[in-house]
Specification:
The complex is a heterodimer of chains A (450) and B (244). Helix content of chain A is 19%, strand content 36%. With 450 residues, chain A is of the alpha/beta class. Chain A has two domains: 3-287, no CATH class; 404-450. In chain A, strands 2-1-5-8-10-12-14-16-18-20 form a ten-stranded mixed β-sheet, with helices on one face. With 244 residues, chain B is α/β, with parallel strands linked by helices. In chain B, the strands form three sheets. In chain B, strands 6-9-10-3-11-12 form a six-stranded mixed β-sheet, sandwiched between helices. Chain B has a four-stranded antiparallel β-sheet with strand order 2-1-4-5, covered by helices on one side. The chains are: A alpha/beta (450), B alpha/beta (244). Chains A and B meet through α6 and α7 of A and α2, β7 and α3 of B.
Chain lengths: 450, 244
């Protein structure tokens, strides 16, 4: 049986555990039917041309987990920001873990999706915001909508500014083979509200003690996550994604952000590891004077693959978007940047900026960079730039004349190249953490004040 | 300290320096003047260790050691410094982080301990004051968006921090207004002592009004055509290079 057939037939068993009379279930049923029609994408699809998705679609994958795994604090503590108070939503193998989480319903709802999805108290919010932004021609989003059960739910009411950031932490325990996880999150910022959210994905290596199968037959998990975000009038959201996973686990991340007038939303994607990582980041501007910020740093090696597909849909005048993605590729790693900017005819006087710079360090690394600008308005400012290259020899010489050896100088320049994207990160602890990861990834240890 | 003997240098097969000799002793300031294209910048690049240039013939001795096979960083570790005509901008690294890294890299290469943070800070304060650099400037990205004057001031600030034995100042006066020129010259003069040496490479004699050289050499068509004292620079300013 193919993975597609297996997943479609899994739906019947999955359904038994849900309220089949709910609105949400109608969405699930429709989504699985649509998924069945279109199936998984193929390398012949333009949208998936450079990402060999087939290699992670293992027939062993299953949405059903066998048992629940708990983790000790010392296993999970490094996955938190630390040094700062925060709300926490922790999921282990896709299942909510209340032990290490810290939720609230006071002032704002920061809790889990399963507690609101079919809860009457939240039916208005769910019917207004749930599953409204999804691309219904996209296989993985449809698959996620079919099996939606758990994930983060964040609802910040009007005029509320969250005083603490929210950390959403997904951990694979390494205790179970072949898991296909379908986390689903819904984030709503009402008018004039403000929030900072950090979403991270980590995996522990195969844990032989709790792993019931033989390690040799262990199939690494595949996470297919979908996040819908609504940023209403005058609201401000800073969203950070940290993908610093084992070299064996894979993530497909689809994020949809809808913005209303005078709102500002930023999304930083830090991709530091994974077997195959695909980010589909979509911004929809539905109002005036909107600012959308998309930033990314990718640092990978060995034969890892990371793909950033971005879309900024300018459908209103006087808005801005800024994209800045940097990639550092070592060994045989491969990267993709596909930045689509769609400017509708009515979207006059917009300013869309897009930059993608890549540093190739490995002799066999590959980058495919594709700016895709579709402009139907005639009075707009759209710029894009893309570079793929090596370390600048002039800069290297300059550093060496100051007594810094070749290896350190290259490290410093690589660090500087990536570091530059971090200037908009307002949260100091996060900035430091990311800088530390970057320094470690690049292998520099020359006493920099991070 | 620096002894150059019959130096011939090419870049991409093109001969630039054709038999240049120079002898710089501790405590001396030498000025090398010459028209555009005479090989001034090539000379500074070769001393600093730029591998794009090929030494075809001749030797460069620094403190008695032939430095031809030393890389740029090894030369810097031994106390050679070059102030760039066009310093490279490096977004993402602050001036402070850069200079700290440079100082500690040199100490490490010499087998010494890293400089303690407190001492470093004190030195940065002291030297930035000397060059009238404010603290905001120090936390900016290296040379990024710096004016011509800021870049040159930053070069001399690095020189002050690194305290080299031999400093090559390549066209340090270009792009400076008169006030910045005075600050930079004053900085250089304060750093000068009986044990170190400075080679100033310049097109105009303007800088030499503020930093008084012991020797002036004229570089023409890849070789030194005339040497003299400070008065030679004034003569060149008046008559140009053609009269030699």
């Amino acid at each position: 049986m193919s993975l597609k057939e297996k997943l479609v037939s899994s739906f019947l068993a999955f359904e038994l555990d849900t309220d089949t009379n709910s609105k949400v279930h109608e969405i699930r049923s429709k989504s699985i039917k649509d998924f069945e029609k279109i199936g998984f994408p193929h390398s012949k699809d333009e949208y998936w041309k450079y990402t060999p998705i087939k290699k992670v679609l293992n027939e062993e994958l299953t949405i059903f987990k066998k048992k629940r795994h708990l983790l000790e604090f010392d296993k999970v503590k490094d996955f938190f920001l630390g040094g700062i108070e925060s709300y926490k939503l922790v999921f282990i193998d896709g299942m909510y873990d209340p032990l290490w989480s810290s939720t609230t319903h006071e002032g704002a709802d920061i809790c889990i999706l399963s507690s609101v999805l079919e809860n009457k108290k939240y039916s208005n919010v769910i019917s207004k915001y749930y599953n409204k932004l999804i691309n219904e021609k996209e296989s993985f989003s449809l698959l996620n909508s079919s099996f939606t059960k758990e994930g983060a739910f964040i609802h910040v009411p009007k005029n509320v500014e969250l005083e603490k950031p929210v950390e959403i932490v997904h951990i694979n325990s390494g205790g179970e083979s072949s898991l296909m996880l379908q986390p689903r999150s819904l984030v709503i910022l009402e008018k004039n509200s403000k929030a900072q959210i950090i979403e991270s994905h980590y995996s522990l290596s195969v844990n032989e003690k709790i792993h019931s199968d033989k390690p040799s037959t262990y199939v690494d998990p595949l996470t297919n996550t979908v996040t819908e975000i609504h940023v209403n009038e005058n609201a401000k959201l800073d969203y950070y994604k940290i993908q610093n996973d084992l070299e064996t686990t894979s993530i497909i991340d689809s994020t949809y952000i809808d913005q209303k007038s005078n709102s500002e939303a930023s999304c930083h994607t830090f991709s530091f590891g994974g077997n195959l990582v695909r980010n589909n980041l979509n911004f929809f501007q539905n109002g005036k004077n909107i600012n959308s910020i998309l930033k990314g740093i990718t640092i990978i090696g060995s034969d890892q693959h990371i793909d950033h597909h971005t879309l900024v849909h300018h459908s209103n005048p006087n808005c801005e978007s800024h994209q800045d993605y940097k990639g550092i590729y070592n060994d045989k790693s491969t990267g993709v940047f596909n930045g689509r900017v769609l400017v509708e005819k009515v979207a006059q006087k917009i300013n869309a900026f897009q930059q993608n710079n890549n540093l190739i360090i490995g002799d066999n690394a590959t980058v495919n960079s594709k700016p895709q600008l579709e402009i139907f308005a005639d009075d707009v400012k759209c710029s894009h730039g893309c570079t793929i290259g090596q370390i600048d020899e002039n800069a290297l010489f300059y550093l060496k004349t100051r007594g810094i050896n070749d290896n350190d100088a290259k490290g410093l320049l690589t660090y500087a190249f990536a570091n530059n994207v971090l200037e908009n990160v307002g949260m100091q602890v996060l900035k430091t953490k990311i800088k530390e990861i970057i320094a470690r990834k690049i292998g520099i240890n020359i006493g920099l004040e991070l | 300290m620096l002894k150059i003997e019959n130096l011939h240098v090419s870049i991409e097969g093109k001969k630039i320096l054709k038999g240049l000799s120079l002898d710089v002793k501790p405590g001396e300031i030498h000025a090398i003047m010459g028209p555009n294209g005479s090989g001034k910048s090539t000379l500074s690049s070769v001393i600093a260790g730029n591998e794009d240039y090929e030494v075809v013939k001749g030797n460069i001795f620094y403190n008695g050691e032939n430095i031809e096979d030393l890389s740029a960083d090894e030369r810097a570790n031994r106390g050679i410094f070059m102030s760039f005509q066009y310093p490279v901008a490096i977004p993402g690294i602050t001036v402070t982080n850069f200079i700290k890294t440079a100082i500690n890299s040199n100490l490490k290469a010499r087998g010494e301990k890293e400089m303690p943070a407190g001492e470093m800070l004190k030195k940065i304060r002291e030297k930035s004051k000397l060059l009238e650099i404010d603290s905001k400037f120090l936390s900016r990205s290296l040379n990024e968006g710096f004016s011509g004057g800021e870049k040159k001031r930053n070069e001399i600030f690095q020189m002050a921090m690194l305290e080299p034995n031999l400093a090559i100042l390549d066209e340090t006066d270009s792009g400076l207004d008169i006030d910045a020129l005075k600050v930079v010259a004053n900085g250089v003069n304060k750093l000068k002592n009986d044990d170190n040496a400075i080679v100033i490479i310049t097109h105009y004699q303007r800088l030499l009004d503020y930093i008084k050289p012991d020797f002036v050499h004229v570089l023409q068509e890849g070789t030194i055509s005339k040497s003299g004292d400070k008065s030679l620079a004034l003569e060149l300013e008046e008559k140009g290079y053609d009269w030699i």
